[in-house]
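During the reporting period, our protein records have gained a structure token line. A sample record is set out beneath this paragraph:
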Amino acid sequence: MSILSKSQGMGVAALLLAASAILSRLMGLVRDKVISWQFGAGNEADIYFAAFVVPDLINYLLAGGFLGITLMPLLARRFAEDEADGWKFFSTVLTWMGLAALVLTTAAMIFVAPLSRLVAPGLEGADLARLQVFMRITLPAQFFFLTGSCVTSLLFLRRQFAIPALAPLIYNGCIIFFGVSLPWSGLVEGMSGYCIGVVLGAALGTLLLPLHMVRKTSFHFRPNLSHPLCRRFLLLALPLMLGQTITALDEQFLRIFGSLTGDGSVSLLNYSKRVAQVPVAMVGQAAALASYPFLVSLLAKGDKTAFFEVLARALRTGLGLILPLALWIAVLAPSTFTLLFFGGRMTEAEIVRAAPLLQILLCASPFWVLLELLTRGFYAQTDTLTPAVSGTILTLVFLPVYACVAVPLGAWGIALTSTVSLVLYSIVLVVLWLGREGRAAFSGVLVTAGKSTLCALPGIAGGYFLDAWVHPLLDPVSPILGAFAGLSTAGLLFLATFVPLGMKFCPEIFARLQERWQARRKKKKQS
């Protein structure tokens, strides 16, 4: 049985999804590097990033990012009770999701002119017309994202994580390939090729490939519009559809309000956001995706003690890793941004503007991980209402803060507002969880996070001085070479100090890797 079709345990799943998150973020950085080289932080790049606001809102409105989360618990129970009826329920959800995606996408394409003015109030004239073209091209991708989420939930239920891990790599790969090749061949101009790559990547990576894999084993779909369990599914999904939380809209706020703060702000905030999300994807998203099916399974068995243990272990590992990574990147933000984005039309002045934005957004990284894991804890208990209502209330609170306080302060004010809103949202969810479930899920979390941070401080401090010494030596030759040399030496020192100290004083955060390494060594000895 190949890795693509076999079932994986939680440790392997976490490694697969972590590897996917790392590679996907690296490909995303390559994509943004190409964009920044070609277009810098100018109008074309601002328009491209703004074109995703409406498509993303459609995805949020239909709970696309959380569709599997609401669908999996219901599907798991239904398949266990009556497999034939489980397929009927799945077919009903997929039918309605496809129809809803088609209707909303078509409506958005018809009303693209007023929508473009709403999402990018800072654009006018030719720039606004260009935005409308980009929006019309990218909107159909939501059909593939939303229907693909239904199909991917089957793979997660079967604990087949390889294809979901490949999906973001295929998606980013298509964006890069068509974004570069189509303009080079003369078929399109500017960033239209990137927009086309979005649609083709979504079709191939998030729908067609998962569909091919589920059909290889067992897949029964018949268009259907009625099933008794749909009411329960709608009640679970409705808070996610109507409740637009801080986490869902964070990136959109950066784009919408960034368009009001001057030329290039949308692009610089977007580039900074991409880098800041790398450690979050490496740690938080991978852990949340891998742990969720197991959390659902444990609750289905009625084993709440094991449920709390799995969630607590994920929180300890997640926060124990994210804090050192985020601190290291924040301290070395100027060199990081220079290495990733300097060159072409991205000037040194824009790098200077971007580095503080990255540092501000990185402050939210541990809270992103906390939110990723804690919301999965709520969702596994089929409670979608608590995160949605609390997140929506905070969204309404922060809208005037963005408009009246952040915009006058400029791009850094928007980045700071984003970070503060995420910190408050995580605090609210922690308080609500403690009041309802107690402290079991947070057992040892603060101790592990504190120890891990202390273990990282020598490597971070030493790396800062190494970079400050090495970077200027090579900067006259090439700023990119200087940044690479500074980051490389700082990174080696960080690993050489943090890993041994971490394994001695907080070994749990490396436990999974150690288990896999020991199992591999044992297997080699036996063979």
User: Anything to note?
Assistant: The longest helix spans residues 265-300. Residues 1-8 have pLDDT under 50 and may be disordered. DSSP finds 22 helices and no strands in the chain.
